[in-house]
Amino acid sequence: MHSGPYIPEVRRRPGKPAESAKGGGKVARTDLDMTEGNIWMHMLHFSIPMAIGLLFQQLYNTVDTLVVGQFVGQHAQAAVGSTGPIINTIVGFCAGLATGASVVISQRYGAHDDEGLGKAVHTTVALTFLISLIATGIGQLIIMPMLRFMQTPDDVINESRLYLSIYFAGISGILFYNLGSGILRAVGDSRRPLIFLVISALLNTVLDLLFVLVFHKGVDGVAYATILSQILSALLILLTLTREKGNYGIRWRKVRIDRHSLSMILKLGLPSSIQAAITSFSNVFVQSYINYFGSACMAGYGVYGKIDAFALIPVQSISMSSTTFVGQNWGAQKIPRAREGVQKAVLMSLVSTTVLGVIVFVLAEPLMGFFSPKQEVIDYGVSFIRIVTPFYIMICFNQIYAGALRGIGDATMPTVIMLASFVAFRQVYLAVTKALGAGFVAVALAYPVGWILCSTLLIIRYARSKLVTYGKAGTNEPAS
């Protein structure tokens, strides 16, 4: 049995600035080697652009919700808001595979495995082409069955169907953006994905207002704005990777499936994909309970979801940062450094999430009023916010520890734990509350109870992982 994490036999690249293809000329490096230097600075340097990127990414659906709420109407706002679980089921599955690819790429980058790095990148590109075709077809097929399954009210369902049909027709844009940004993040470059995302989000805002206010479109206008701006972000990031001189750049003639790389990507990515898809699908059940209370509750819940997503941006960005940090240091066999990075990530997430949670709790009513002038919609949204935000601290533990475990290649157990907590347990909870005739407050509590269970189990798993036990009392093998 080996005494450390597996590192393939590789050809080491020298630690110097990249050279241009023409030879001799040095170019500025945009990647980030996290295996050396100050951990706090690396985490902040990587997390802050990620957080800003997530902020602008949230602007897509948020601007859609805001524009239709203020300029189209309550039913249109409910229609756009209710599509989230369906979109996230498909996109979440694909993003899970991108996560697996990112871990493989970050580990090979940390190990200086240049040949393996190139194969992983080109396998990821080929896989994304296939997934885009499949996602487009499946997305169109499931629209009406899913809307019926969610018991979408008749006064909302047609607009929901229209929005989804347009979105899935252009879903390749978001998938290829996730592909490219995942490759760049894996090598420590979170700046360029941010720049492209900002450009795309600003375009989306302009197009939303143009289609709705000038061309007098409804949900179809905001859907077209979304996919056009996402396609732009995909083109920008693919062009950047094509022009990249590093070993992680795309060489289109080399785009093909490498069996070993595909095997590793699927091994690490499929658990995350299944988790994301099933968790999002479980939200379809939650949405069906929300739909029971009518369009005002649907709209309020939809707006709450947007505000909630903004508040949780820091913990998400820090979680992704910890995955890359742990992946690179695991690949470089720097286990104590990887462990220290996780500890700092937990502290960073606790502080930032607590501050934002308090702000959202206090400003719940004006925040809701910004999205909708309807008092009934505002009241529902404020109730959701003030029920859920006190439990935000629990999200820090499940997100950071799950990200760290994936960074060392332990993707299966976090997936099992999250599925048990967010799907199985949550659905049992909802079924019981429905049988007892509980109101929407009980439905809102379905999220915190799942977070508490998930965090407890992931803390236990992390404490038993090789990342913690390695080098202690002669324990050099991962926990079973």
TrEMBL record:
Cellular component GO terms, alphabetical: plasma membrane
TM helices/strands, residue ranges: 39-60, 86-105, 125-144, 164-187, 194-215, 221-241, 345-364, 384-404, 411-429, 435-460
Pfam families: MatE (PF01554)
Compartment(s) where it occurs, according to its Swiss-Prot or TrEMBL record: Cell membrane
UniProt keyword annotation of Cell inner membrane present: no
Disordered: annotated span: 1-27
Record's bilayer topology term: Multi-pass membrane protein
GO molecular function: antiporter activity; xenobiotic transmembrane transporter activity
Protein name from the UniProt record: Putative efflux protein, MATE family
Source organism of this protein record: uncultured bacterium Contig2
Lineage of source species: Bacteria, environmental samples
